[in-house]
Amino acid sequence: MVTSQTDRLHSQLSRFEDMFPGYRTEIVEGNIVMSPLRPFHNRTVMIVWAELEGQLDAEWAAISDVAVPFSDQNEFCPDLAVIPAKEEQRNLSAYPADLIELAVEVVSPSSVRNDYVVKDREYAARGIAHYLIFDPIKGEVGVRWHPGPEGYRGRDAFPYGGDVTVETQLGKLVFDTSKLPVDPGE
Predict the structure, then answer these.
(1) Are 144 and 154 in contact (CB under 8 A)?
(2) What beta strand segments (E) does 86-177 contain?
(3) pLDDT in tens, 143-175
(4) DSSP H or E run through 39
(5) Which among 152, 132, 145 has a CA at the least distance from the CA of 81?
(6) Nearest-CA neighbor of 150 among 173, 126, 171?
(7) Which of 48, 92, 142, 162 is the most buried (most CB within 10 A)?
(8) Euclidean distance between CA atoms 151 and 145, whole angstroms
(9) What does pTM read for this prediction?
(10) What was the pLDDT predicted at 79?
């Protein structure tokens, strides 16, 4: 569902900006969801971002934790999203979901359902060609492709420890998962 003012670029989340340091805030299924930030989550994002940026053509750029309104019920802040570089250069606080070519989420204990179920469905319904789920809890990366109205029809999971190659419209992307942290559990 496209909200008539989804491209309003003044996200609903903007009113919470800087109110909750140390928490990532999103709107998921109409609920405000705050997830505490963890070192393994942030390290995974930084490693994946560095690898991703090194492989993108100049016409593409990665953004992180920027509001992306999908509907009145869902306003996500993807851990990483690849959008056209000319749009990234606008330096906005929110971007339309239709700009995203690749979405990346890193699972935390509080985001399992959102990353594997809600975002899988919403990213696919919006036609985002590829969705990668890096999971420090399981020590694996989920690769999603072939989006449809109910989710991604193509799905693979690869254990951390080697290279994972993803063929995308952006080109062949290779991620070295041997560098990624695995949560030891509590």
Answers:
(1) yes
(2) 102-106, 130-135, 140-148, 151-159, 163-168, 171-176
(3) 999 999 889 999 999 999 999 999 999 999 999
(4) helix 39-53
(5) 132
(6) 126
(7) 48
(8) 9
(9) 0.82
(10) 93
* Token code pair at residue 113: 């359902």
Amino acid at 161: G
In terms of Cα–Cα distance, which of 88, 91, 97, 74 is closest to 12? Answer: 74
Q: Provide the 10 A C-beta neighbour count for residue 149.
A: 8
β pairing state of 163-168 and 151-159: unpaired
Which amino acid is it at 14?
A: S
pLDDT above 70 coverage of the chain, percent: 79
Q: What CA–CA distance (Å, rounded) separates 64 from 41?
A: 13
Contact 63, 76 (CB under 8 A): no
87: DSSP letter: H
- For residue 122, give Cα distances in angstroms to 77, 81, 83, 142: 13, 14, 17, 16
Question: Which residues in 64-119 belong to E strands, given as ranges?
Answer: 68-69, 75-76, 80-84, 102-106
What letter does residue 132 receive in the DSSP assignment? E
